[in-house]
């Protein structure tokens, strides 16, 4: 049997349970890896063997029924992906697929009724083992259910692609297997019940007892489970629509999505044996492919490195934050106020130039709190508390007892220096002064202060409530206590924080601006906007360049570009056409097409590049810039740049961020003479 020396084994523990009304006891299998919910159950080779042994023992006892459940809060979150990079051959990948299929099929083929009591999170192989059971209940407290494999370059490889569409229909299955993973969504318990993934929904408090009683009713014939007839006439039409959507969004760049489509099509008529055999072959192909290896690398960054940022001072140095001050009351400042209020639940006070602006900012926050109550994402008691903690004033002295002050005003260095000079005389000596600047120097901002050591960059990404990245920037004189406090606050805000050196535009904006700079070099030379816009389709980026520019805002992009052009005039262009676009104030896209009115304002040369040439030049520029950033020590390692691009710019897992793609395409070596990642780290090879 294949082995994973790093596997945290999830044991399948069998016990006999007496249920009122049944003549024979019930065999209850509990999945438990011996840790709390912070280390979820998963299936590696040893875990699958334990489940296999448990099914054997349960069957031998001849129970009234067999049920499988999980430890508190967790059912099972799928395959143990830590072992996948260790697979060195396709044969091993096939063996892993076949092992899961063989063990799970015992539940499906059992002559004794089988039940899954989904008490907590059930993802990937965890949901698949539940689908193999004859019946399923789900707890209202289960955090998430889904088949997210496509998002990490794989497919549901243990029966999910064949069982789910034949249980809930092709439309629902396509949503769970394709749409949800690619939009980072999961099913909630109520939705799972409504779609037919689960047969019954019970409250968390008495979930196991209620599930056992319900299952007893099914076995005795007192409870009838009705499932809708599957409409096979619409099968092909749903998949045709799904393929068109995928082609439009991903342009064929994500093999796992295409494989999933093929398997869903097969599920319409194929036998279960043939369908699962195809699953195994598809899974093996993908596990050994570049995109899956890059996806697993990206997944590890998000799940591990993001939670343990590199270079952070000892957390014992962090100061307690009991009050937050926010300079400004505009939209960004108001979003920050709401975030600090919800996560820290301490007094938050806004200031601005006049009472009207202050009132508008406070009203925004209370309005958003009301919306959260209306959506049942916040109870009225907590909402009332939060409303009592938010306030605003034009009197800056309200910051006198604040422990953490953050400014979110216009990107102008002199303005920010003036603000800090004024507030330094008001706040207490140990208060942290944080700036949400997207590109300006923290060191210069603090240069004239009496205590520059307490100034730190705290760069959020818009929308603040959605994007998880927080770039924490250390100025030349920022001390360890300030940094430790900044990271502690970032953790309380539930953000993934990365330590960044004080360098122009930091990480995400520097990389994206170099990208935009190369795009507009091509435009200025004479390449049509639609050509540069479609040039990166083969990479499967989340947005085309012009759509990204429209989202960021041409004026913001131009401003950051100016900052970087001043810092690095040899690499960042001051594009006259980007300036014309800003001055025109026209939307770049109309109905997702290039606005012809924008094209008219451009003044271009006669050098027309192909899409391949645009892409090659832009990627070479990114390789050059990332190498320079690493040599400058902007971040500790290339992994931090990938993490920033994934969490702050939405770069897809199948690219691994950016550096694995530059490595495997050979661009990194061509441009810089070496790879970014140590051999084997992302397990990608040169194409």
From TrEMBL:
Pathway: Lipid metabolism; fatty acid beta-oxidation. Residues 506-585 form the 3-hydroxyacyl-CoA dehydrogenase C-terminal domain. Pfam families: 3HCDH, 3HCDH_N, ECH_1. It catalyses: a (3S)-3-hydroxyacyl-CoA + NAD(+) = a 3-oxoacyl-CoA + NADH + H(+). Keywords: Fatty acid metabolism, Lipid degradation, Lipid metabolism, Lyase, Multifunctional enzyme, NAD, Oxidoreductase. Residues 323-502 form the 3-hydroxyacyl-CoA dehydrogenase NAD binding domain. PANTHER family: TRIFUNCTIONAL ENZYME SUBUNIT ALPHA, TRIFUNCTIONAL ENZYME SUBUNIT ALPHA, MITOCHONDRIAL. In the central section; belongs to the 3-hydroxyacyl-CoA dehydrogenase family. This is 3-hydroxyacyl-CoA dehydrogenase NAD-binding domain-containing protein. It comes from Actinoplanes oblitus.
């Amino acid at each position: 049997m294949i082995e994973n020396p790093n596997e945290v084994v999830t044991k399948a523990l069998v016990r006999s349970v007496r249920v009122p009304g049944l003549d024979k006891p019930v065999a209850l299998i509990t999945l438990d890896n011996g840790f709390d919910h912070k280390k979820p159950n998963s299936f590696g080779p040893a875990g699958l063997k334990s489940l296999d042994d448990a099914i054997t023992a349960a069957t031998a006892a001849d129970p009234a029924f067999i049920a499988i459940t999980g430890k508190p809060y967790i059912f099972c979150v799928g395959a143990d992906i830590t072992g996948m990079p260790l697979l060195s051959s396709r044969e091993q990948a096939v063996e892993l697929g076949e092992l899961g299929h063989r063990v799970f099929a015992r539940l499906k083929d059992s002559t004794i009724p089988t039940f899954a009591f989904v008490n907590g999170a059930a993802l990937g192989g965890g949901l698949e083992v539940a689908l193999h059971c004859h019946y399923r209940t789900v707890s209202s407290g289960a955090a998430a259910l889904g088949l997210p494999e496509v998002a990490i370059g794989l497919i549901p490889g243990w029966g999910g692609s064949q069982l789910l569409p034949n249980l809930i229909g092709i439309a629902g299955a396509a949503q769970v297997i394709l749409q949800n993973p690619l939009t980072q969504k999961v099913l909630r318990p109520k939705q799972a019940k409504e779609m037919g993934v689960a047969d019954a929904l019970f409250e968390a408090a008495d979930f196991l007892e209620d599930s056992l009683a319900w299952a007893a009713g099914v076995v005795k014939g007192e409870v009838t489970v009705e499932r809708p007839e599957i409409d096979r006439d619409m099968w092909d039409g749903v998949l045709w629509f799904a393929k068109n959507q995928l082609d439009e969004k991903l342009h064929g760049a994500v093999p796992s999505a295409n494989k999933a489509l093929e398997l869903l099509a097969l599920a319409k008529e194929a036998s279960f044996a043939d369908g699962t055999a195809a699953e195994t072959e598809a899974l093996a192909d993908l596990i050994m492919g570049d995109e899956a290896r890059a996806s697993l690398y990206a997944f590890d960054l998000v799940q591990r490195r993001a939670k343990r940022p590199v270079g952070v001072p000892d957390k014992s140095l962090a100061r307690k934050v009991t009050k937050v001050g926010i300079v400004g009351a505009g939209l960004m400042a108001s979003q920050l106020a709401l975030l600090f209020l919800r996560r820290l639940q301490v007094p938050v006070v806004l200031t601005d130039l006049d009472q009207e602006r202050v009132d508008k900012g406070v009203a925004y926050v209370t309005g958003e709190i009301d919306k959260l109550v209306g959506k049942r994402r916040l109870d009225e008691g907590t909402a009332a508390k939060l409303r009592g903690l938010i306030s605003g004033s034009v009197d800056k002295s309200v910051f006198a007892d604040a422990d953490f002050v953050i400014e979110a005003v216009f990107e102008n260095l002199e303005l920010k220096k003036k603000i800090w000079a004024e507030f330094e005389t008001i706040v207490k000596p140990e208060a942290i002064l944080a700036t949400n600047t997207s590109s300006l120097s923290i060191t210069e901002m603090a240069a004239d202060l009496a205590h520059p050591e307490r100034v730190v960059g705290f760069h959020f990404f818009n929308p603040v409530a959605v994007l998880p990245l927080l770039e924490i920037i250390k100025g030349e004189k920022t001390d360890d206590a300030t940094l430790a406090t900044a990271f502690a606050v970032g953790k309380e805000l539930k953000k993934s924080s990365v330590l960044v050196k004080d360098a122009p535009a930091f990480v995400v904006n520097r990389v994206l601006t170099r990208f935009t700079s190369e795009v507009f070099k091509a435009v200025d030379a004479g390449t049509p906007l639609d050509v540069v816009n479609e040039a990166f389709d083969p990479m499967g980026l989340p947005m085309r360049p012009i759509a990204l520019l429209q989202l960021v805002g041409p004026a913001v992009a131009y401003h950051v570009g100016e900052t970087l052009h001043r810092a690095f005039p040899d690499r960042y262009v001051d594009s006259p056409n980007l300036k014309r676009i800003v001055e025109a104030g026209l939307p770049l896209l109309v109905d997702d097409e290039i606005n012809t009115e924008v094209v008219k304002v451009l003044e271009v040369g006669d050098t027309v590049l192909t899409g391949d040439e645009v892409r090659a030049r832009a990627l070479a520029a990114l390789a050059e810039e990332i190498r320079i950033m690493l040599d400058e020590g902007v971040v500790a390692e290339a992994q931090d740049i990938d993490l920033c691009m994934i969490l702050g710019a939405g770069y897809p897992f199948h690219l691994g961020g950016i550096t694995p793609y530059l490595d495997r395409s050979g661009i990194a070596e061509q441009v810089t003479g070496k790879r970014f990642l140590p051999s084997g780290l992302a397990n990608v090879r040169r194409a």
